[in-house]
Amino acid sequence: MSDSLELIQTSSDESALNLAPELCHKMFEKMVTIRRFEEAVLEVYTQGLMRGLAHLYIGQEASAVGICSALNDDDYLTSTHRGHGHLIAKGGKVDRMMAEMMGKVDGYNRGKGGTMHIADMSLGILGANGIVGGGMGMATGAALSAKLRGADQVAVCFFGDGAINQGAFLESANIASIWDLPVIFVCENNQYGEYTAAKAVTAVKEHIAERAAGFDMPALVVDGNDTVTVYETALKMVERARSGAGPCFIENKTYRYRGHHVGDGDSEKTYRTQEETDMWLAKDPIPRLSRRMLKAGMATEAELKSIDTQITQQVQDAVDFAKQSPYPTADEVTDHVYV
Amino acid sequence: MSMSNREITYGEAVREAIAEEMRLDDTVFFMGEDVAVAGGVFKVTVGLLDEFGANRVLDTPISEAGIMGAGVGAALTGMRPIVEIMFGDFIPIAMDQIVNQAAKMCYMTGGQAKVPLTIRTTIGAGRSSAAQHSQSLHAWLAHIPGIKVAIPSTPADLKGLLKTAIRDDNPCIIYEDKLMYSMKGEVPDDSDFTIPFGVADIKREGTDVSLVATSSMVQTALAAANILEKEGISAEVVDPRSLSPLDTDTIIQSVIKTSRAVVIDEAYQSYGITGELASIIHDEAFDYLDAPVKRIGAMDVPVPFSPGLEPSTIPDEDKIVKTVQSLFRDV
User: Fold this and answer.
1) What CATH number belongs to A5-318?
2) What is the pLDDT of residues B151-189, one digit of tens each?
3) Buried b (16+ CB within 10 A) or exposed e, A122-149
4) Contact A338/B68, CB-based, under 8 Å?
């Protein structure tokens, strides 16, 4: 039986920062890009320039960036309805993403998918997904494909705390384990599945990762707002999977600062408390990383501020690009039903 | 190209199609429940494990949603998986992966993603297997844009369509009637023989009525046509062979020639293939019809277990004959 549940919950904030400065800069830039992009999504959505739903990733940046920084360009990932962060972390271009948000022809999917379906097959991004748990089988299959082809690629399967209660998890985790497939199951436990507390609907003693321990795979519980710990854990697990040792499960404990989607009311007045949100705001992953970079002498405050300013401009350029891009023309509606 | 034919069974057609495509293309692999060591519950895939090994012929857990998802993921990333779902009645367990993922990936991604996934499953009653192992649920996936659906009625059609499905870059599903696995038929002796989707086949020529039938109902319709011939009614039997895409032209041309049509399918009659085909015929050949288009499907009851009940729920040649006769009464 499993002694495979490992808790790495302790924060690494007070430890020395032993990562390469270039890597820390890259992770900081990606996290700020996600934050500024999501703020821009909020703005264009509120202005009526984007329709449908907008599930913001604000607050969870360390999870996407820490995990994806441990990946190669040709590794795969499957994402979720809250997928913008995963895409940016894996190399997605913000202008084509923003154009897709607005349903424009220059969007990643030529406007046919929108926020919940953005994919970039050239980056191994097999798609965000509108079905909770919908990517679990696909990630397992991508890992099977890599194994059958003799490639050393791995597949990361991002999903939320809600998806752990889908049958797809049991089936995919079992298949990945019996065939030793290189799948990194990453559960982003942001504490709420839509408007319901995960702990109210999830039968575990304390951690969701307990579930995975039963599938004979390493199950790790991580402070998901600590970019450095997430990265170091991912690096170890990705190397393990790449070497043929099989799947693993990482539970990143994190929090979404916004609601389930934009415009769904005031979360702090309904299903969660201001006190709780404030507690998580104090653990915001971006200042946590930047403080450590400053302390380690990897950057000055002015440099980090300048990076932020540049990224803010890039995101504004992406919004302008998306605004001027046309809608697809009516004759495209029947394209791509079949290859 | 060799012009000679060989006689094989419908089940052997499956095995030959898979083996030939696997020899041709290293990215083709086959997985499903009990398909490797046991050779499948219907013994249709015996020998594939020996020839291709456990890396290409995989026994899976009983996890229809999981293996379908794995098939979609493998197809998205350079492989050509063939996934067997033992009974078509189990397709609902994998429905999300087929309907929401496989069938939509190409469209949702604006053409970036392709899913060359082949699904094989079974349909058909008649074995006293009761309500969860006897249904013909092909209309459900024929309803979904983005997946191609074939429903072959002979060994040659099965082999040709399955090979086409495996080579196709889109998700395809082949519905095999489990009662036909031992049925024999001629197949071209050519390992490159394929049949395109979207091309119907006239299984019997006739002039007075078009019997548009699918899968095992093609055989039933042929038997009915022989009876009708003795009564002086010349029936043409049209087999669409694939439902998506559908060869509307061949069906309509046949009805224009005969002026009468009966549509026969083993699925529940309500909201099914027979309704769709009858509607197309009415829309496109109304001016040529001498009688309303009639539909024959399974009774709208769960398939019963008892040999005393089950046969009455499935269309048979007697019902086809009586229905055709009713179209001629007032002429």
Assistant:
1) 3.40.50.970
2) 999 999 999 999 999 999 999 999 999 999 999 999 999
3) ebbbbbbbbbbbbbbbbbbbbbbbbbbe
4) no
Prediction ipTM score:
0.95
SS3 letters across B296-316: EEECCCCCCCCCCCHHHHCCC
- Say what the pTM is: 0.96
In a shared domain, residues B165 and B294: no
Question: What's the DSSP call for residue A52?
Answer: S
* Cβ separation A117–B108 shorter than 8 A: yes
3-state secondary structure of B42: coil
- Count of structural domains, chain B: 2
To 5 degrees, how large is the angle CA A102–CA A108–CA A109?
85
Q: Are B148 and B168 in contact (CB under 8 A)?
A: yes
Coil, strand or helix at B32: strand
By C-alpha distance, which of B327, B173, B196 is closest to B263? B327
- CATH number of the domain bearing residue B26: 3.40.50.970
| Contact between B112 and A146 using a beta-carbon 8 Å cutoff | no
pLDDT, tens digit, 9 for 90 and up, residues A207-261: 999 999 889 999 999 999 999 999 999 999 999 999 999 999 999 999 999 999 9
- Domain span at residue B283 reads 201-328
Residue B196 lies in a domain: no
Candidate list B64, B176, B276, B310, residue with the active-site label: B64
CA angle A267, A268, A269 (to 5 degrees): 90
DSSP annotation of A125 reads: B
- Top residue of A118, A145, A159, A172 to mutate, by most chain B CBs within 10 Å, is A145
Residue given tokens 């890597």 in the structure block: A23
Q: Are residues B87 and B152 in the same domain?
A: yes
